[in-house]
Amino acid sequence: MGPDQKWKCVECKSAEPRTDNTNTPVRSSNARHEHAYVNMSRGAQTRVAMSPVAREGDSSIMEVSYTDSNTHNTTPRDNGLDTTCVTDTQLLVSELRLLREDMRAMSQEMHALRTSLTSLTARIDGCDRRLDGCEDRIGALCARVESLETRPQLSDAAPDSSLVETVSQLRLELNDRDQELLLNDIEITSVPESSGENAMHLVTALSKKLGVELTEHDIVDAGRVGRAPQLQEGTHGPATRPRPLVVRLARRAVRDRLLQAARVRRGATTEGTGIPGRTQTFYVNERLTPQNRRLFYKARELKQQQSWRYVWTRDGKIYARQQAGTNSPRHRIRTELDLNRVFGLR
Question: Which CATH class is domain 183-226+241-287?
Answer without folding.
Answer: alpha beta
